[in-house]
Amino acid sequence: MKGLKESIQQAPVGVLLVNLGSPAEPTPSAVEAFLEEFLSDPLVVDWPRWLWQPIRRTFILPRRSKTVAHLYAEIWTSGGSPITAYTARQAKMLSGVLGLPWRVQWAMRYGQPSIALGLEDLVRKGCERIVVLPLFPQSSRTTTGTVLLEATSAAARMNPVPQLLPVNAYPAHPAFVMAWVERIQETLARANSPAPHVVFSFHGLPERYIRRGDPYRDHCEATAKAIGQGLHLRPGGWTMAYQSKFGPERWLGPSTVDVVARLARTQPSLVVAAPAFVSDCLETLEELGARLRQTFVANGGQEFLLVPCLNDFPTWIAALAELVLEASPPKAVR
Q1: How far apart are CA 50 and CA 53, in angstroms?
Q2: Over 70: is that where the pLDDT of 333 sits?
Q3: 29/162 same-domain check
Q4: Which residues constitute the domain of residue 131?
Q5: pTM of the full predicted structure?
Q6: Number of domains in the chain
Q7: Do 151 and 178 reside in the same domain of the chain?
């Protein structure tokens, strides 16, 4: 990134990193408020409102809030929710790499700080152009789609209205892939086995969304293939799976928990990476790091290694800077 700080001689350009979000605290009331906002988004759950609203408020929220709050409490840190802490750290480090005249802010699609607040902060700092970078490498209407829609809506209510420069998807971007390759190599170096089997676990999605044109599955497959090639994994040395199924619909498969239970019977050593997530969160630390580990051991596995997410990994911060620069070509100086 040499020369970045000296190479841009323009008016301030904003960067808004956007992640999914988190409850404000690991309590049932905070979790319920977060889940209500998340599950009310029609791009996430597109069931008819008359059907979904009573199910959500009568069954889902009252029953899940206490359980999920307990799970959050298990991973909560002194700096708050891991996803919040790491997203803030990514923004701070990216700001240091980009330097002036860039202005970097972070936001959450659900919870705080909101996308609107992030955009308002950047506009107050004089940013007429703002790069909106969803922290979802594989695009889906449920992630990238809802972030960009919310950002566009929020920007339209501002005066002056900033120009948004969206980063749509980067499932096989060389810089993103290299960050994951290096991250996984660190974990492979700690394995007792010379060639542990690698599982790439992606967050699931209803198959119905894919049939309607959502590109998410194709993007996940592109990511897994690119990382596998970057690691020079042998044929049959890695498996792709999907986690976090929710509700009665048929979701993308195979299921991560089923795959790991099966592999435990033949693979004594397993390395699990979750390249749909760039920051560790409930789905990686608890669902994979705790529950999936128990599944592996219960089925005869011996060594289970979870690859940390990209978090504040320097190669990932450099990749973010590259994505930002690609999305924001310099304006002509008159």
Answers
A1: 6
A2: no
A3: yes
A4: 4-170+313-327
A5: 0.94
A6: 2
A7: no
